[in-house]
Write a structure and sequence with these properties.
alpha+beta; eight-stranded antiparallel barrel; 26% helix; elongated
């Protein structure tokens, strides 16, 4: 994001926040952290201003993402490190990595890490998130502007199906969240709320599939939009519509009408194959 764009964003935001405050409403950013962010807006290297995430929101983000001992957690734009440190210390993530472009934030995060007592399970990288490989992550957290979320989106969608992505305040445009929640907080005397969004990376199923269900051979032609898909099926030479197509990571479900009856199919996508109870499919194209 260009410097002028960031400064214009900041000025416009401050005007809006002031109006809200005058109306008697508490707002998430209207605290000392926003004043700190104002001082950083003149750094031309940084794509976003730094606004710390309230601890109540940190906790709820990691709960919503269901972070646990088997997870590798990456925080993109990690600031003072509070989210990735909490993922490892409080939620027992196997590994945590924070990435931030601002060396001052990395130093602050490392200072906080030294006090956290989590050993070498957390690492902070002073790098550009668009130039760093984070494909090993099973959970990703981020607090970026919508424009940056959209720039990251193709990379996120190429990650392993089932990877959980948790964001706050800014969503992913027409990629609908699998879950969202307004999280209240009380920080530095100001009460507010931030919306937390959860996205689960869906398997890729668009295209033609050869499905075998018992004695029936069925041709599927699927069109996918993120975690939703639709399409047609050819059953015994007759075309029927696929309905209720949904993906949750690698888990797939859809309904076909066969012999006048709606039949629901559930299975798991593994590369170019899908396996379900009493049915399977292979990618044809």
């Amino acid at each position: 994001m260009q410097r002028m764009t960031r400064i214009a964003f900041l000025r416009n935001s401050l005007a809006v926040f002031t109006a809200i405050a005058l109306a008697g409403s508490a707002f998430a950013y209207f605290d000392e952290s926003y004043a700190q962010a104002s001082n950083e807006a003149d750094d031309p290297r940084l794509d976003v201003i730094y606004v710390p995430t309230p601890h109540e929101v940190v906790k709820r983000m990691l709960e919503i993402a269901k972070v646990g001992p088997n997870d590798i957690h990456y925080d993109l734009g990690s600031g003072d490190g509070r989210i990735v440190i909490s993922a490892v210390k409080d939620f027992k993530a196997r590994k945590g990595v924070g990435i931030d472009l601002d060396p001052k934030r990395i130093k602050e995060a490392q200072d906080n890490l030294a006090k956290a007592g989590v050993g070498d399970r957390v690492t902070f990288l002073n790098q550009n998130i668009f130039e760093t490989d984070f494909s090993e992550a099973s959970v990703i957290s981020l607090y970026l502007l919508s424009t940056l979320n959209l720039k990251l989106r193709p990379t996120l969608l190429d990650m392993k199906p089932g990877t959980r992505i948790v964001t706050q305040s800014f969503a992913m445009d027409n990629w609908e969240p699998d879950y969202k929640e307004s999280v209240e907080f009380d920080a530095t005397g100001y009460k507010g709320a931030r919306t937390v969004y959860l996205f689960v990376v869906p398997a890729k199923v668009g295209g033609k599939w050869a499905m075998n269900a018992g004695e029936r051979n069925i041709a599927l032609d699927l069109s996918q939009a993120f975690q939703h898909f639709k399409g047609t099926a050819t059953v015994d030479g007759k075309n029927t519509t696929i309905t209720d197509g949904k993906l949750n990571g690698a888990n797939i479900e859809f309904t076909l009408e066969i012999d006048g009856k709606p039949l629901k199919y559930e299975g798991k996508v593994e590369g170019n194959g899908i396996t379900g109870n009493n049915w399977a499919a292979k990618k044809a194209s």
